[in-house]
Design goal:
47% of the residues lie in helices and 10% in strands. By secondary structure, it is of the alpha+beta class.
Amino acid sequence: MTTTLADTWGIHQQQFWLRGQVPDQPVRFDEKTGMWNVYGYPEVLTMLSDPKTYGSDLSRVLPEGMVPGMEERSEGNILQMDPPDHTKLRQLVSHAFTPKVVADLEPRIAELTHELLDQAGPEPELVADLAYPLPVIVIAELLGVPSSDRHLFKEWVDKMLESSTEFSLVEQNEEQKKVMEAALEPQKALTEYLREHAAERRGHPREDLLSKLVEAEVDGAKLSLNEVTNFANILLLAGHITTTMLLGNTVLCLDTHPDEFAKVRADRSTLPAVIEESLRFLTPFAVLARATTAEVELGGATIPADQMLMVWVAAANRDARHFAHPDVFDPSRKPNAHLAFGRGIHFCIGAPLARLEGRVALDILLDRYPSLRTDPARPPEFIPSPNMTGVRKLPLLTT
């Protein structure tokens, strides 16, 4: 049996696409979980481009009581909203991520990168020293919450990412309930933290994104405190996790492909293409969830209405029907229309910022450490979840 990089690195066994395995069907029903799995690129693209048929509001298909306080948690959660509500809320933050606003952040990103690496010492651990704090500080400063509290964010987020349990709509057992409650505890702590800051902005607004959300109106009415809090929650989480994984994954991809690493060292203008291929090759957020609003034909399967679908964008990014030699890390591939940031109305609003942070940080990292490489004696540690692909520890050698 061939040992793949995924085996060597200890990536979750359920991520078969990283082991050169191809699903026998692009769309498949899983009787054990009661959910449909969608693996193929054209099928995933169809779904993400049709929010009317494949909705993001999952409350219709989740068993009652499966997610404690789901109604309260879903208010203002832009990831689980459909038009027109989604459209209105997205417009509220779109001004914070315009090309000019993002481009203007480059000097601050560079400054932070140098500061963090100054503190890191001669042999940095990429995640703790740079890949985690950099995007957290940037998004915290945008929102207006103290970036000095990032140790709290990390503690909460790490607990959220610990679970590797597979959930089922069919079997609602005690173990699953306990795992769900444990996963929601740190999210509750983060929500309460943000709620306090949002409540404070109502009386003392500032020049930050949190204040703008508190003061914003949709259809003549201001957002509730719950909506503001959940919205900010998503921005803080999504605003850093992707970039954290992107940075670690890109360094790993280059380290295991010396020829490509040499090209980047010689010509930094190739970094954007390297980042895009890293996003395809090791897609940070492996899966999205959708619910059918009507019976539909997809990938040779007939899916009834009100079914939950797990949309495996990471598997779609390895589909040979769309990508030639999908298991080869090739930054020169053109076009590289990967789905790591989604597609359609839910395309990641922070994608330009994540790309900028990745390019600036990696450029500085390579400048400061020309001999940068991983440490064979201290292999990378990956997040244990089947739903994400990214390192949580990556020790580096620099001499």
